[in-house]
Amino acid sequence: MPDYFAYNENWSSIYEQFTSIHGRVAEADETAAFLERYCSGGSALELGIGDGRVAVPLSDRGVRVEGIDNSDNMLKLLEKRTDLIKTWNGDIANFRSDKRYNLIYCAYNTFTVLITREAQIGCLRSSAEALHDEGTLVLEIPVPDMVGFVSGQKTTTTFMDHENTFINADVHDPLNQNLVSTLLWFSGTSVRSLPYRSRYVYHQELDTMAECVGLKLAERWGDWARGAFNEESRRHISVYRRAGL
Ligand SMILES: C[S@@+](CC[C@H](N)C(=O)[O-])C[C@H]1O[C@@H](n2cnc3c(N)ncnc32)[C@H](O)[C@@H]1O
């Protein structure tokens, strides 16, 4: 059984290259522009801040950004880039902060790395408690892609060019809404194998979990450029505020 925490530490050595190849570094400015408008001149907290892919451009826009991550190696990557962003090692499934934030956000597929329903609700509850009364929670969540599983297994080529091929091998654990996955990265003569586990969540379940902790959906978009969320969408950007506002 792979150690899924070690996955985070293993990913840190390839994270910058991986996100760059997958267009996520190029997208980070657009993500920061989307997020900036919810900060109202105040502060933001990123859940699973990683190497600061989004936090650094958001900080460059003058927002006071802080972040939580449970990988020291990821936090070291961020420290090399800036000393303006305060971070701490912690678990986003259950965190407390004395401070209140205008914006709390969780980008990429980070929320689904919380592999139980309880951990996902715990993350939403901790976020609700750490928000200002009029604060905003923004989550980027992949739309579950359950097409193509045969006997509970699926392989998908997620990226290919003349130098790199990425293949994702997923095993479905339907009782837990989990995917037990291995990313295989072929480049030149090397193959790297990166295991990870995730809990997929549909947007309506997410809204129900948010309602359980006093948050209500305010907006939902299909991408960071505010494209529509529709049946073609591969992800959604969901914006929550306190119910009753
Ligand atoms: C997919 S990366 C995203 C990093 C960054 N937010 C971005 O958008 O590029 C997920 C990050 O979440 C961190 N992480 C995973 N599970 C966590 C947990 N339970 N608590 C805190 N951080 C966690 C990982 O170490 C990693 O840095």
What does this structure look like?
The chain is of the alpha/beta class and 245 residues long. The chain has two domains: 4-144 and 201-242, Rossmann fold (3-Layer(aba) Sandwich), CATH 3.40.50.150; 153-198, N-terminal domain of TfIIb (Single Sheet). It is built from seven helices and eleven strands. It has helices at 4-12, 15-21, 24-36, 55-60, 72-81, 117-130, 203-212, and strands at residues 43-47, 64-69, 86-89, 101-106, 131-142, 153-160, 164-173, 178-187, 190-199, 215-221, 235-242. Helix 4 (55-60) links the parallel strand 1 and strand 2 (64-69). Helix 1 (4-12) packs parallel to helix 5. The radius of gyration is 18 Å and the shape is globular. S-adenosylmethionine (SAM) is lined by residues 8, 19, 48-50, 53-54, 68-71, 74, 91-93, 107-110, 113-114.
How many helices? The count is 7
Lateral arrangement of strands in the main beta sheet: 3-2-1-4-5-11-10
Mind describing the biggest β-sheet? 7 strands, mixed
The end-to-end span amounts to 46 Å
CATH-derived topology of the largest domain: Rossmann fold
Question: Which structural class should the secondary elements be placed in?
Answer: alpha/beta
Percent range for β-strand residues: 35-45%
Total strands: 11
Shape: globular
